[in-house]
Amino acid sequence: MNAPVTLGQEEAFARIRLLRSPNIGPVSYAQLLRRFGNAQAAVEGLPQLVARGKKDYRPVPRDRIEREVAAVRASGARYLFHDMPGYPALLREIESAPPILTVRGDTHLAARPCVSIVGARNASAAAVKLAREFAYALAREGFAVVSGLARGIDGAAHEGSLPATIGVIASGIDIAYPPQHSSLQERIANEGLLLAEQPPGTEPRASHFPSRNRIIAGLSLGTLVVEAAPKSGSLITARLAGEAGREVMAVPGSPLDARSHGCNQLIRDGAVLVQTPEDVIELLQGFDGHPRSRFREAQPHFVAADDEVLADEPADICGLLTTVPVGVDELVRQSGESAGAVQMALLDLEVAGRLVRHAGARVSLAGLADRRAE
């Protein structure tokens, strides 16, 4: 991303409108800004761009964005754009970083070294106490503690680190979830920092939580899993942290407790075993981008150069795509086309609702479940 800029009101409005338009995600948003130069031109040019695929396309209506902006203001929140001062630098580095966040609280907290603490919702009393103690000790050492405001480990991490805590929610900035954490969420907004990617008024859905988890991982130098079952959301956060080249840490637990199996699995797969806050501090103080953990090391992937001009004509790559994810770099190699032409083809497919983007710069054709979710 480019250096921080100052946005005019109309361009800021157009950016929100562009991102809220059908089938526009973080990657296609960035590509459209690059292709058209600004969001106002991108919104105007989208219908013609999609018309090449013989599909009628209408950006989200202006009045819907006007209502959203009013709701953001009414909730005491504000917008934070990807290239503006205050946007977290570490988060900006990850693939598919959210182009626009709504925030309440002190954005300077995100400029501190951050560590995420995540774990089971139905955590044991011992694990909850441990998470609270870790968070308290890390906050005293100057870290900001990031978590997702879920029950169990997340809530304990926030409580232990207040006011040096960042809550990332899967709903709109004005929705408290879970309801029993409404007071905690309000405290974080008033004393720490609360972040949301979804528009105000959005109730959390299952598909929102992996997106929230990528923000938690992206904000942080490292992710610590205190207690988690296999296939839990906490392990998704750990995997995303590993793919982003951040440290992945886990507290070991008894093999007799299913809630510890996820942490033990992480350690077996290369996460760093930690037992005290000092272990975490040693790993993260002076972190240079080379994690000691070997869990899900960052995968090399194709990234379009900032000054790359997307081709006017898309590559013919539909025959190379299935519902199984494949790397964009592999599509470039196998098609023999330029990177700009491949990216233009992917953009066309995504805006038409036929493409799904996955972590690690991988893409696939949308399956029936993906299309029903549109």
From TrEMBL:
Species in which this protein is naturally found: Croceibacterium selenioxidans
State the source organism's domain of life.
Bacteria
Pfam families from the xrefs? DNA_processg_A (PF02481), DprA_N (PF21102), WHD_DprA (PF17782)
Give the family from UniProt.
Belongs to the DprA/Smf family.
Q: What InterPro entries does the record point to?
A: DprA, DprA_WH, DrpA_SLOG, WH-like_DNA-bd_sf
Any idea where the DprA winged helix domain is? 307-360
Protein name per its UniProtKB record: DNA-processing protein DprA
The Smf/DprA SLOG domain, residue ranges? 79-284
